[in-house]
Amino acid sequence: MKKYLNLILAVLLVIAVGVAVYALAHDEVVATVNGEKITKEELYRELVASRGEYVLEQLISERVIMQAAKKEGIKVTDEEVAAEVDKMREDLAGGSQEYFETILSQYGLTEETLKNNIRVNLLLKEIVRGKTTVTEEEVHKHFADNQEKFNIPHEVHARHILVKTEEEAAEILQKLKNGEDFAELAKEYSTDPGSKEKGGDLGKFGKGKMVKEFEDAVFSAPVGLIDKAVKTDHGYHIIEVLGIQEAREVTFSEVEDKVREDLENEKIAAQMETEYAELRKAATVETKL
């Protein structure tokens, strides 16, 4: 997932830089060196020479996919795009809108630009889905080959408040023992940008997802507030365990739909590059760069 997200961000960065530069007047000065001017025209010329063909191919691929989807009557709703943005926000920024916007801004991007790229990717995915079949035999085999992937893992649901000093942690622990609200204290005091907006909620997670000291404390504690702050390289964590899910094996009937969806998505992902290559080959494209 992260590899895919990084690719999207890298492609959009190149396009965003090109568009921003092109929007300037040709003689507009973008820098000076000891008083000597560097104009927008010089910068744009270098950008075209170094990255122009690559960016143009990205724009061509977008048009090829959108035209193919339109021809087949395939549409992607705003809700579907928004759901993908939500997943990306969770993956990159722990669900924090503020932190997510900061990450995008570092690449010179806006959420709207990102949505456009996601929409094109979803259109290609739906084009491939229409040509993808999954048999019952394949579904059973996929479950047998990957049962561990579908088993219920040992997970903990927890929330935390991260602060810099032991003194701060002690003060907040006392506030909690006095009956103050955990979520409100997290929003006010936590330095973790990925969880503070959600009242410190980290969701469910398994072993290997958190730093060792945090993990050891959480997975050895019962449900409830851990009565001592946990020190890590990030600072001091006040932790509350909200729930514990024990590991167990599942039966095929419990996860049949999930197995089918997983297999279908694997097949689609494997075919997307080939499908685009065929669409690109069939399109009449004239480049004049």
What does this structure look like?
The chain is of the alpha+beta class and 289 residues long. The protein folds into two domains: 2-132 and 268-282, Triger factor/SurA peptide-binding fold, CATH 1.10.4030; 150-245, Chitinase A, domain 3 (Roll). 59% of the residues lie in helices and 14% in strands. The protein has eleven helices and seven strands. The strands form two sheets. Strands 3, 4, 5, 6 and 7 form a five-stranded antiparallel beta sheet that branches. A two-stranded antiparallel sheet has the order 1-2. Helix 1 (2-22) crosses helix 5 (111-129).
Key traits:
single chain, 289 residues, alpha+beta, Triger factor/SurA peptide-binding fold, Chitinase A, domain 3, five-stranded antiparallel beta sheet, two-stranded antiparallel sheet, 7 strands, flat, disordered N terminus
**Overall pLDDT confidence:** 88
The largest sheet is:
5 strands, antiparallel
Structural class comes to alpha+beta
Shape: flat
- Could you give the order of the helices and strands? HEEHHHHHHEHHEHEEEH
Helix percent reads: 55-70%
Assess the beta-strand content as a share of residues: 5-15%
Count of individual beta strands:
7
* CATH architecture group name of the largest domain: Orthogonal Bundle
| CATH fold-level topology of the largest domain | Triger factor/SurA peptide-binding fold
Q: Radius of gyration, Cα only, in angstroms?
A: 25 Å
Number of helices: 11
State the CATH class of the largest domain.
Answer: Mainly Alpha
Distance between the termini: 33 Å
Number of domains: 2
Sequence stretches where pLDDT stays below 50 over 5 or more residues: 1-7, 9-24
